[in-house]
Write a structure and sequence with these properties.
Blueprint lengths: L6 H17 L6 E7 L3 H17 L2 E7 L4 H13 L5 E4 L9 H5 L13 H8 L8 H12 L7 E5 L6 H10 L3 E5 L6 H5 L4 E4 L17 E4 L3 E3 L2 E3 L12 E2 L6 H22 L1
Parallel strand pairs: 1-2, 1-3, 4-5, 4-6, 6-7, 7-10
Antiparallel strand pairs: 8-9
The structure holds nicotinamide-adenine-dinucleotide.
Length: about 280
């Protein structure tokens, strides 16, 4: 039996569905990515977003600043907020430490916040109100749904970041999962992971989860991306697949789902903008 939950396959399926929706629109939607400074990983991610955006039929604008003052960046975002031709705005993270990340992210109009990182969209997510959901948690739910995974189980998430673990905790709770959120200060991590029917790991430490930490027959989602000597590794040891019933690979699991979820958010943002 194939035990791999294939992110590229699910992405391609969803991409075709999205393209069909987009061709029905009269307008061409526009996504803007703002990046500041030189971060090699960010460059790769921005390029991936551009490629997929053009592929599905969006216009893509890359606004890059080698350096910019906070006030000026905020003014640039406000201009984009007020421009009816712009449907989605992303500020590529990480930002240089001199800039106040929360202040900048919260300048983005919640209706154009396609990364789902404004405070308002987080509150909406907790309250199950219609808003824009962060792309990685959204992608994780999409791949679990594609493989018809019953979420009303014992779910353990490792990693409590605002980008992945924390929003995912609320999304899964809202889908009737019984969720435990583990983090760097959790004592005896294995006692939690070993008990998980569904284990989701978003830490950023190569093979933190070894095969002996995984429950027999469990479902594993490996979010981690760790680069070593030009190769990519997840947070979960590959041999865990011998014990698990299903697992996402790295690469080719959550990564492709994150990018397609962003593209879906651009369409959702446009529909929200039409309503408001
Ligand atoms: P982060 O650094 O913001 O958060 C890491 C979390 O891991 C923290 O909550 C911390 O408490 C926890 N942690 C650290 N050490 C731990 C330990 N020993 N035991 C248990 N918990 C521990 O990272 P992030 O932005 O959430 O990203 C996590 C990983 O997921 C990274 O490898 C990142 O590259 C990857 N990621 C992948 C995608 C994708 O699309 N595939 C998207 C986002 C993030």
């Amino acid at each position: 039996m194939n035990k791999i939950m294939d992110g590229r396959l699910v992405r391609d399926t969803r991409k075709e569905e999205l393209k069909k929706e987009i061709t029905k629109l009269k307008e061409k939607l526009t996504l803007v990515v703002i990046s500041v400074g030189e971060d090699p990983a960010s460059k790769v991610y921005v390029h991936e977003k551009e490629k997929m955006a053009c592929d599905v039929g969006y216009q893509f604008i890359n606004m890059h600043f080698d350096d910019i003052e906070e006030d000026k960046l905020i003014k640039e975002i406000e201009k984009l907020n007020n421009d009816v031709n712009i449907n989605g705005i992303i500020v590529q993270l990480p930002l240089p430490k001199t800039l106040n990340k929360n202040k900048i992210l919260n300048t983005i109009s919640p209706l154009k916040d396609v990364d789902g990182l404004t405070d308002l969209n987080f509150i909406k997510l907790i309250r199950k109100e219609k808003g824009l959901i962060p792309c990685t948690p959204k992608g994780i739910l999409s791949i679990l749904d594609y493989y018809k995974v019953d979420l009303s189980k014992k779910v353990v998430i490792v990693g409590r970041s605002e980008l992945v673990g924390l929003p995912l905790f609320h999304l899964l709770l809202n889908r009737n999962a019984t969720v435990t959120l583990c983090h760097s200060k959790t004592k005896d991590l294995k006692s939690y992971t070993k008990d998980a029917d569904i284990l989701i790991v978003a830490v950023g430490k190569k093979e933190l989860i070894s095969r002996d930490m995984v429950k027999d027959g469990s479902i594993i989602v490996d979010v981690g991306i760790n680069r070593e000597n030009g190769k990519l590794y997840g947070d979960v040891e590959n041999s865990s697949l011998e014990v698990a019933s299903f697992m996402t690979p790295v690469p080719g699991g959550v990564g492709p789902m994150t990018v397609i979820s962003l593209m879906e958010n651009v369409l959702e943002a446009y529909l929200l903008q039409k309503k408001n």
